[in-house]
Design brief:
six-stranded mixed β-sheet; five-stranded mixed β-sheet
Length: 418
Amino acid sequence: MDLIEDLQWRGAINQQTDAEGLREELKQHPVSIYVGTDPTGDSLHVGHLIPFMMLKRFQEAGNHPVMLIGGGTGSIGDPSGRNSERVLQSMDQVKENQEKLTNQLVKLFGTQDFQVVNNYDWLSKISILDFLRDYGKLFSVNTMLNKEVVASRLETGISFTEFTYQILQSVDFLHLFRHNAVQVQMGGADQWGNITAGVDLIHRIEGPETKVFGLTIPLMLKADGTKFGKSAGGAVWLDPKKTTPYEFYQFWLNQDDRDVVKYLKYFTFLSHERIDELADAVQEAPEKREAQRTLAQEVTKFVHGEDAVVTAEKISHALFSGDLRALTADEIAQGFKDVPSVDVPSGQTGIVEFLVDLTHIEPSRRQAREDVQNGAIYVNGERQQSLDFVVDTDAAFGGRYVIIRKGKKKYTLVKVQA
């Protein structure tokens, strides 16, 4: 099975400008292929992984990936997939975001046979007159208005700034074709209009037989019809400071049975045979969640490394079993990031006073005494039923945290202030 057939099996191809032409080109020699992203934020998120995983597959098959970060286009704003104008960022913010995204991309793709380019380097050098004479003259407003990315905005309105975005993206493809030997542009389904505009521009300037190709990836929707990539807390980021590796792992572990096989095809490099085995496991023993666990392991390893998988599973086991003492302070911070928290001073305090006066976990001393004696209170994973028990903030987790559990699931993260 060749690369294109593999991508089709994975459900990863939406549209192609010249399917047979690209297939023949790949048979003859490795190609350079690029994906672009604008630095609209300071981190990539799991939605970006959709085209990135396909770019990684091209790399694994011996082709040459090029990642374009839109330091130029990012200062303008891509209208694709939006019904309103973007708020323009300062150039300082764009530059800062671009540096952070570059570091994340190098972590995913390595440095060998992988390029990161910034379109600010060439777009910023084009004067307004050169832009209009050399490129604007080659674009028909009628054709641009019919592109879905523009047509969908005509009722609500689109600025001239965002209207010209597809021209700038076309110039990017032309520049990379000339200077980086890039023959293929790949992107999400909403980029089809911008991608075909770039292919058309190259054919007008370099000749209609020039071998350049466009490829898009389907819009990723969950089984319930909602957009992939969001969790209860919002976007799932690749930056471990914004979404911890444990949260990242849990996002994949909690995927619906109806979606998990599709995600295994998209986001892992497992063989077809292994994915078919996991698909059978979903049908025969869904309660074991073997497919989800494998998905979580594979994607977390790709983004954060093997150690992150070990840590995420260690935290998961500790929370499930209630045995928290084996966790480090940093692992507690990951596992209890979204748990209600309260700050207390360091020191030793009787358990009733700790629950009522310091943390307000209990509404009254009477209720606190009752819950302690009934075995409903756990301190750092251990049940405490003695009213004489003293909570020592230095006893566990490097003196940084105390974990209080009330009942079966109600946790409070107590942060110790030095």
